[in-house]
Design a protein that fits this description.
The chain is mostly beta strands. The chain is built from four helices and 13 strands.
Length: 182
């Protein structure tokens, strides 16, 4: 049985492609990972189910067309549209290290300080919420407030592993939205 604590989101199926069960997927990792017989894990009715790629071909820098074993029609593939793709954390780390690349997983970012380019130090990542479609950093401020920051490229400028900092560019509304009312 695949447990949530052992997997991490690595992409999302966007839509079907063609009539033979191919899916258009946006991936945060190299598509070769799945071409090498590593499972794509999808939450199906509350259970994490492994699927294996029959074929993987690039469609752009982060988009791939993936044909899964056992899904042979557009109708069958439709069941996975908009589903998050997960991979086993240990396998990804091993794979990325072999390629000479570093990979930070969400759990690794707990305890990092969040520093905004305009507003300065915001707080510390207390935990990372991966239960929703959009991953959220739950940041605890020095005042004891919690700020929910989407882990989106639009807001993250850089991650400095050495300093254990996440550099952001956040809209003022996002910072003020979750602060305690005075």
């Amino acid at each position: 049985m695949i447990e949530e604590k052992n997997i991490t989101p690595v992409g999302k199926f966007q839509k079907t492609h063609g009539l033979k069960g191919e899916l258009n997927a946006v991936l945060d990792i190299d598509a070769e990972y799945f071409a090498e017989d590593n499972p794509l894990i999808v939450n199906v009715e509350g259970a994490y189910v492994p699927f294996y790629a029959e074929s993987v071909r690039g469609k752009g820098a982060t988009t791939s067309l993936i044909k899964l074993e056992g899904l042979d029609s557009q109708e069958e593939a439709k069941a996975l549209v908009n589903e998050v793709i997960y991979a086993e954390k240990d396998k990804i780390k091993d794979y990325m290290e072999e390629e000479g690349e570093g990979l930070l997983l969400e759990d690794d970012l707990e305890g990092f300080r969040v520093v905004d380019e305009e507003y300065g130090e915001i707080g510390v990542v207390a935990r990372v919420d991966t239960t929703t479609e959009n991953i959220l950093f739950i940041v605890e401020t020095d005042e004891g407030d919690e700020i929910f920051i989407p882990a989106a490229d639009d807001f993250i400028v850089a991650i400095d592993e050495e300093k254990r900092e996440i550099i952001t560019t956040l809209p003022e509304e996002l910072i003020n939205l979750n602060q305690k009312q005075q």
